Amino acid sequence: MLVDLHHRAGGPFTFRLVLQPLMASFIAFRAARRDAQELRPPYVWALVWRGRSDLLREGWRDIARVFLLAIIVDVVYELVFEHWFYPLETVTVAVTVAIAPYLIIRSLANFALRSGKL
């Protein structure tokens, strides 16, 4: 599994490993700006410590398209270049390129906007 994931970084469709995190970061920054205007705490902090399902739904609504696009592009990559479908690898790539950047950027940008750093 790790070998297959490693080959994706330098192989075909590499653009998605840059483009999809950028899209997720842009969406996260917009959400963080909205959070900062409403004086909400950083997103991950609120999810972990307050466990609010409404925040989880809001985050999913923001990032669902990028996540689904990451899954589709990875499935196409696997079928074309590896001639097989590896679901665990697909989910790993989709979480890495879509959800992780969204969570990190939304929380850090909110913190920076509220403290006046941005």
Order of helices and strands: HHHHH
Rg, Å, rounded: 16 Å
Residue share in β-strands: under 5%
Which spans have pLDDT < 50 for at least 5 consecutive residues? none
Integer tally of domains: 1
Number of strands: 0
What does this molecule look like?
The chain is built from five helices and no strands. It is elongated. With 118 residues, the chain is an all-alpha fold. It has one domain (14-113). It has helices at 2-10, 16-37, 43-50, 53-82, 87-115.
Which features characterize this protein?
118 residues; mainly alpha; 83% helix
Q: In brief, what are we looking at here?
A:
The chain is mostly helical and 118 residues long. The protein is built from 5 helices and no strands.
Question: Topology of this structure?
Answer:
Blueprint: H1 2-10, H2 16-37, H3 43-50, H4 53-82, H5 87-115
